[in-house]
């Protein structure tokens, strides 16, 4: 549900610039709900429509039936129909003629993450680049890569990507090191692609909000919730630090917001609150300055320098 926050930030970008997000970014990457947004951007779906899809489709997808939903989660390991999720993704892509795309068909560059259920292997779905990468994922269907990336454990059944049946079913790429895949995207761009140089690149990492006031877990279900939340949250700051260290020449921005309360990944009832938070955040973003590579509130390097200056002064 929190994906509506970065979707609104991108909607603001389109309103300010007058063009689709795809016109401003050569490379998109995402995990879980971020993978869905990244796939939409790659397909040329307007951000305003992405926001509407969240608001309209999510309540239908995340229908909770008291007691039965909990029993299904305990007995079967998931609460919602992953096939319905795939169908929604495919319908959205179909409106842009992208329902049958492979990753190689995507106009720009893309990276989508997932994690193997059987062996824990971290997958990075990218376009084939003969002579530069292993060429293992470019012919995979975009819709299935997105479905696998969004198949969060205990919410959806793991998904097997056609063409990777031998690898087995896959789950949300955030249940590993790629909850925020900005570092993997930089590695793919600067080391395995052509035309990207750190000194000439603007990197924008969009978060889905952070909640820091989580109560101490005391029983099984609360511990499971805490563990999943940490698996999805912790990589965000780690990946930010790695990009800042290893690609310091790039103009790097991390845009996120602190949440006043916790919001479940499937809590469709909180969409209006999340929408208001996303609107307030979007209004604060100076997209023209970011696209120019100017120093802004969101500059990671500038934030680090200010912290270092404060430490020296203290």
Which descriptors apply to this entry?
11 helices; 4-stranded mixed sheet; 46% helix; single chain; two-stranded parallel sheet; 314 residues; alpha/beta
What does this entry look like structurally?
This protein is of the alpha/beta class and 314 residues long. The chain is built from eleven helices and six strands. The strands form two sheets. Strands 1, 2, 3 and 4 form a four-stranded mixed beta sheet that branches. A hairpin with a 5-residue loop joins strand 2 (109-116) and strand 3 (122-126). Helix 1 packs across helix 9 (271-284) and helix 7 packs parallel to helix 8 (220-246). It starts with a helix and ends with a helix. The model has no long low-confidence stretch (mean pLDDT 89).
Major sheet details: 4 strands, mixed
Assembly state of the chains shown: single chain
Rg over C-alpha atoms, rounded to the nearest angstrom: 19 Å
Terminal-residue CA separation: 41 Å
Strand content: 5-15%
Shape: globular
Indicate the structural class: alpha/beta
Summarize the structure.
The chain has helices spanning 4-17, 33-43, 47-61, 68-76, 82-94, 142-150, 182-192, 220-246, 271-284, 287-292, 300-313, and strands spanning 27-30, 109-116, 122-126, 170-172, 202-206, 251-255.
Indicate the topology.
Blueprint: H1 4-17, E1 27-30, H2 33-43, H3 47-61, H4 68-76, H5 82-94, E2 109-116, E3 122-126, H6 142-150, E4 170-172, H7 182-192, E5 202-206, H8 220-246, E6 251-255, H9 271-284, H10 287-292, H11 300-313
Parallel strand pairs: 1-2, 5-6
Antiparallel strand pairs: 2-3, 2-4
Helix pairs in contact: 1-3, 1-9, 2-6, 5-6, 7-8
